[in-house]
Amino acid sequence: MIMVQQKEQGMSAAEFLFPSDLERTEKKINRILLVGSCLTALYFEQFKTRHPETAFDYIPYNFVSVLPPKPPSPVESYDLQYVQIPLRTLLSDRVIEGFHFNEPGFAEKILEDAKNLLDVMLSAAMVYNESHGLLTFVSNFIVPQMSSASSLRGKGGSRDLVTIVHHLNDYLNERVETYKNAYVLDVDSVASAIGKRYVLDDVVYFYSHGGVTFQDWDDFGAIARNEPIPPLETVYPIKRDEFLDAAYRQIVTSYRTVHQMDQVKAVIFDLDNTLWRGQLAEHYRPDVQPWPRTDGWPLGVWEAIHYLRARGILVAICSKNDYKTVKQRWDDVVNPKFVSLEDFASLKINWRPKAENIAAICKEFNIKPKSVVFVDDNPVERAAVASAFPDLRVMGGNPYLTRRILLWSAETQIAQLTAESERREDMIRGQIVREETRSAMSREEFLASLECRVAFKYITDTAQPEFARALELTNKTNQFNTSGKRWAFKEVADFLKEGGQLLAFTVQDKFTDYGLVGVLFLKKSEIVQYVMSCRVLGMEVEEFVVAEAVALVRKAHGNVRVTASVHELPDNTPCRDVYLRAGFREDWVSEGIHYYILDEGKNPKAASHIKAL
């Protein structure tokens, strides 16, 4: 049973910013490469002591350095690299003489030169990313605490270093987007959340340094003074350790997001005391005034619902209530009307056990309970649901925690928004209509009426627009996944360089366009892995795609024997017999892996009601 912890006091900055409540499985990071200047040197010194389970290597990077052809350890041994480009190098020591900012064009020149230098330094720092596809996180710049402008009127203007660093952060985001498998980590927000007064050294050091306050640079009284300097922390309380913990936690959670660890695919909400204060039947009667307030946390949860939807996460309602009453009173209770019943992909508002309703929602969404979060104020209901579905995550006891956990957890983030993620809600709605139609017809009639069409696309390069979705699908699919393998970006890049191909396919029928829902990893005459979304399972698409893959393999290599395999995994029973259904024969079984062959000259079976586009 997975119960989301309800933390009341003593929450660290790392936990506050990057909640662990939705984590279920641990993903060990074996080795990290740190590339950067003074701040990264501090990370290297501290991280290896604080996190001995992970190995750290460090390459100092200042000015326009050239990284060595090979890092300290083999590139393939790193899980990721963390790059921190020194702000002082970009801005140059020209900015120390602040009176120059009064000169026309000086600030504009500083920003222009900084952008040009950033291009050069980023390109050099990304050499291992570009050559090996190494997952790369790039730190942004910590913005100075206080304006450097020469006048009150100039604060926040173009001649203010604060403004210039903000522009550099925007530019850094734009540039990192041009690289594959690379993401910006917002360390400036980490410093801001803790409080830059407790972190940033610009109260002592340069505005352009962008480092963390500590007293290691002091001589500790070696030089006599008329009045001894008191310890720095008696003047400026320092939260260096808290900052370091949060900065590392940001790396870990970003890594989890990229690898889609414990990804949340749906959030199911109760209504009473969850989406609004009080109970609909008791506290919102026309004869009872005043009604509970809607400001504060209810409004925050309403907005969170829309931001979850924007990430492709499905939202649903599961409430013990009268459906007609909820529908009639919704606009009275949800006021302002920021969220409507139509915003939810599934509604289960009835008096049945919530576990029964949640099972129905999971079936409609074609997801397993382990991909679901259930939000309910009632501890008895949460316990009952958790007992029925041990892998499902439940929360909701403290409404002040709900929004932060749902929006800030790594498990509700996505590395990159794909077209399929944007359309997921519409696809599910169409799928529900499709299933309703299915129940009224025979299977043969239903399949013939679908007007199902499949389009294929070969992916031979990670730069192709379909690649991101293909990788996302591969790494989050459990039920129809013939090997269960999760691929890192650089692994797929190597697979393609070595002659492998990804055969991706999209599906549409008269109800909806499902988008890219499947991918086959092909190498010569072998189907290495076959992954497909369960949204189209049962339409006989799976056999049709195998037949098309065989045809494409034989077109490239002649009338060869085609091989494939299926691993017996706890969740992948839906794909166990796909090759048998497609006309292959089982050759042998070893350690839970079934090997299949389609002999030369033998054609696979294909569904006649599906058309290839």
User: Share of helix among residues?
Assistant: 25-40%
N/C terminus separation: 46 Å
Give average pLDDT, whole number.
Answer: 90
- The assembly state of the depicted protein chains is single chain
> What is the overall shape?
globular
Uncertain residue ranges: none
Strand tally: 19
Strand content: 15-25%
What this model shows, in words?
It is a single chain. The chain is built from 20 helices and 19 strands. The protein has 613 residues and is of the alpha/beta class. The strands form three sheets. It has an eight-stranded mixed β-sheet, with helices on both faces. Strands 1-11-10-7-8-9 form a six-stranded parallel β-sheet. It has a five-stranded parallel β-sheet with strand order 3-2-4-5-6, sandwiched between helices. A hairpin with a 2-residue loop joins strand 17 and strand 18 (593-598). The two termini are 46 Å apart. The model has no long low-confidence stretch (mean pLDDT 90).
